[in-house]
Design goal:
21 helices; globular; 493 residues; mainly alpha
Length: 493
């Protein structure tokens, strides 16, 4: 196909090439979960090499999610005003740079800082990917297209565990980050050729809601940091309580400011006056809160408690993402015909059932592990694409990136809380000494290491049961969502 001259922009051009655009944005959507699932398998090896405690190793994951959570809504707002295309391409560049820096890490602090850069790039991608797809696909194709986009996310999860296990065993843990480089560079070149670099923008006349940005960031940081470090600090300590109190105050101040400013960072009408949008976002928060830590905690369980290799662990964990890859496009098509309520409710109930099965693994064989994760994957497939389609279809065209960013923030906050809360529950039986011994298996520490592994197994069971309860709550929220509104859409510029 011929490429339009640099600087040209027509909505017809992108609509004619919407499937190519879907492929490009889906590859961007593929990169972030690929990185997360690879790192989950590699964490025990990274922790040994860089001398990280259990709490510090959890922070390697949480730093990435925290950066995403803080940046998503401000970047989504800017993308709606200054152009989703240029923000998407910038996200590819930043994510690739962060991956290179992570591969070169010489210590825990360097690695955490690199993960935050990766998180910034992932925020740019997440704030624009679904918005670009929604903008060029007609409503009758939207669920199907977003189903493929969600499928790409789960393909990243599918490829990550076995690829991560192979890379760790064959080449070393640094390659779990280096593998992102060719993907990022090729996508950047493709996007530069496909997408127009100039778009009509609406940001020139807008007033910046600086106070809203600062208060939202303060709320998220003060909420997520103490939860992340709870295994190290303790759940009720002066540091934790002070930060949580500041988080609550920041949230109240944020809502006060957003009601008063002329051009708020977040249109509170979306949350308070759009029942479908609000319920779908709360359901997404509960969904990721309940399930995101499964990969991380189960990878540790299989290697530390059951004594399996990183490579075998990666293969065993394929059950969940393969179900999501296979069924997400189907779920998206069904949502185009029947709506999202039934699919998302049933999906969250299935997630709860799968987590109950995981809670009873003990020393079960490999088949039980795969089946349990597959049930979780079935539930996530039924939930994700219909829920995303519902969110994106309930707002105006000029709010698409903001809606995508709010949904992405729910996802990022849910994932951060999942790592913090479920990770904290899993580590709750260990104590500080057990946390340091947990990754020492095979180093001659003897019965103390075995005891730490059994303590972790008990904490893992409690974490999975807690996740199941949260998933059931998500099913209830999904059941209460309203009918899809018909928002007024402005004419294309």
């Amino acid at each position: 196909m011929a490429v339009l001259p640099s600087g040209s922009f027509t909505s017809d051009h992108l609509q004619e090439r919407r499937w190519e655009l879907l492929a490009l944005t889906s590859i961007g959507a593929f990169m972030a979960p690929l990185d997360g699932s690879i790192v989950a398998v590699a964490l025990p090896v990274i922790s040994l090499d860089l001398h990280l405690s259990f709490g510090a190793s959890i922070w390697v994951q949480a730093a990435y999610l925290l950066a995403m959570a803080v940046l998503l809504i401000p970047l989504g707002r800017l993308a709606d005003q200054y152009g989703r295309v240029r923000f998407y391409l910038l996200g590819l560049a930043v994510f690739t740079l962060g991956s290179l820096l992570a591969a070169l890490s010489m210590g825990g602090t360097w690695l955490v800082a690199s993960r935050m850069i990766q998180g910034g790039g992932a925020a740019l991608l997440s704030a624009t990917s679904a918005a670009l797809v929604t903008a060029v696909f007609p409503p009758q194709e939207r669920g199907r297209a977003l189903g493929y986009n969600v499928m790409a996310v789960y393909m990243g999860l599918s490829v990550g565990p076995p690829l991560g296990g192979f890379l760790v065993d064959a080449l070393g843990w640094r390659w779990v980050f280096l593998v992102n480089l060719p993907v990022g560079v090729l996508c950047l070149i493709w996007g530069w050729r496909l997408l127009p670099r100039r778009e009509p923008i609406s940001g020139a006349a807008r007033h910046r809601d600086v106070a809203g940005v600062v208060l939202l960031a303060a709320f998220l940081v003060c909420l997520l940091v103490p939860l992340t470090f709870a295994p190290e600090w303790g759940w009720v300590t002066p540091e934790s309580m002070l930060l949580l109190a500041l988080s609550g105050l920041s949230l109240v101040a944020f809502f006060v400011v957003e009601r008063r400013v002329a051009d708020p960072l977040v249109d509170l009408g979306l949350l308070l006056g759009n029942r479908l949008f609000a319920a779908a976002n709360v359901a997404a928060l509960l969904n990721y809160l309940s399930v995101y830590a499964i990969n991380l905690l189960t990878a540790i369980y299989l290697q530390v408690v059951q004594g399996r290799s990183a490579l075998l662990t990666g293969w065993l964990m394929l059950g969940q993402p393969l179900m999501q890859v296979a069924l997400s496009p189907l779920a998206g098509r069904l949502s185009d015909r029947f709506g999202s309520r039934l699919l998302t409710t049933v999906g969250m109930a299935a997630v709860a059932g799968g987590m109950v099965l995981l809670a009873t693994l003990e020393t079960s064989g490999m088949v039980r592990v795969v089946v349990s994760l597959a049930v979780v994957g079935l539930g996530l497939a039924a939930f994700s694409a219909p829920n995303t389609s519902a969110v994106m279809g309930s707002v105006r065209r000029d709010q698409l990136s903001l809606a995508s960013a709010i949904l992405g923030t729910m996802r990022s906050v849910g994932m951060s809380l999942s790592v913090a809360v479920l990770g904290g529950i899993a580590a709750g039986q260990l104590g500080r000494a057990g946390g340091r011994l947990l990754y020492s298996r095979g180093e001659g520490a003897g019965s103390l290491v075995d005891q730490a592994a059994q303590q972790y197994a008990l904490g893992y069971r409690y974490a999975m049961l807690t996740g199941a309860a949260l998933a059931l709550l998500g099913a209830v929220v999904s059941l209460t969502r309203g009918a899809r509104p018909r928002p007024e859409r402005p004419r294309p510029e």
